[in-house]
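input
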Amino acid sequence: MCGRYANSKSGPAMAALFDAEDLIAGAWDPRYNIAPTAQAPLVRRSKSRGGRVVELGRWGLVPPWAPDPGIGTRMFNARIETVSSSRAYKRPFASRRALVPADGWYEWRKLPGGGKQPYFFTRPGGVVFAGLWDVWRVDEEKDPQAAGQGDLNLLTFTVLTCPAMGEAMETIHDRMPYVLPPERFAAWLGEEDAEEAELLAGPAPSLPGELEIRKVGRAVGRTGNEGPELVAPIGGDDGPSTLPGL
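output
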C-alpha cells in the first residue's frame, strides 16, 4: 500500500517537468509527510484548459455517487488487479487518469519484538505514481451549509498500488505504489492509445535497482510532523539498502 509520501517540488517546477499549466498559484509548500485526506498536487488532462494541468486535489478518491466525502478516507489506494472492474474506480480508470509527483514514499516494517520501523523509498529526481481523479459535487439542497462555504466541486484522487518488486522491498511490505516511467506518462494520461494490459503492466523491471531504501526516524508516524528531516537516513547508513535483512 501507499499511505504516506513526500513531495518537495514547487508548482512551477512540476509544471516545467510535466509540460503542464500551473494552477496551484502558490498554494503549495513542500511536504514530507503527506497523508490521506491532505491536499497534494496531481497532473491531469483538462478539457477546459486544453492540455495538462498541475493542481491540488484531496488524497482519497470520492466517487460522484458517494453520499458524502467521508468515503475518501478509505479510498486513497486502488489495486491494479481490480481497478478496471471496481465500481468506484472503473469510470475514472477509463477516462480520468492522473500522475502523482513524489520524492518517494514510506512503508513500515513490522519488527520481531513488536513495533514498526519506517523506511523511505526514493531515487534521484523522485518518482511518479499512477493515479486516478474524480470530482464530487456538493448537493446544495441536502447540504446548504457546505454549499455556502465556497466551491461546490471537490477534486479528489487515489494512488494505484501493485505487488512489491524485489526481495528488499518485499521484506518491508508486500505492496507498493505503481511507479510510472516517463515513457508511459502520455499513455496513462490518455494522450496516446494504449490497451488495458499495457496501462496496467506494472513498474519497469529496472525499478528495484534504481531505488534507495532509507531507514528513517519514527517521527513520520505522526501526521502533524513535517520537514526534510523526516526523509533523512538514520543509523549511520547514508547509502542505498539492498540486502533482504536491511
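quick obs: The chain has one domain: 5-231.
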